[in-house]
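Thread amino acids onto this structure.
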């Protein structure tokens, strides 16, 4: 499975961005998907995930970010509104392949494929 992200950029605080992720390869094997972020000096954080039609969000982004999937498990989106400087990070798309209970709340260690990431920078 290959994952390629796009849509990052520089935005002012309060602004919005929409990240996209396109999956290729053995997409039939993908179950849960999510977005995580890496920032210098901070712990890697799974900000949003989708599994079995259910969505999950980190408390830090709840109410501001929305995760959604396109058709046929090919695309994943992250709509980010009301962005804050602390949202500045490299955002990665990730996927879980193989057997996975659709009722499980995904955690970072469950995801076994990820992309190179797209940088999001929020200025104050």
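Threaded sequence (124 positions):
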């Amino acid at each position: 499975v290959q994952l390629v992200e796009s849509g990052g950029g520089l935005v002012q605080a309060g602004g919005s961005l929409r990240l996209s992720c396109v999956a290729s390869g053995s997409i039939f094997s993908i179950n849960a998907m999510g977005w995580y972020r890496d920032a210098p000096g901070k712990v890697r954080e799974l900000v949003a995930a989708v599994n079995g039609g259910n969505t999950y969000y980190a408390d830090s982004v709840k109410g501001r970010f929305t995760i959604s999937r396109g058709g046929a498990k090919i695309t994943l989106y992250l709509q980010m509104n009301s962005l804050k400087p602390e949202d500045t990070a490299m955002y990665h798309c990730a996927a879980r392949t193989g057997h996975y209970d659709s009722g499980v709340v995904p955690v970072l260690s469950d995801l076994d494929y990820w992309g190179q990431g797209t940088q999001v920078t929020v200025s104050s």
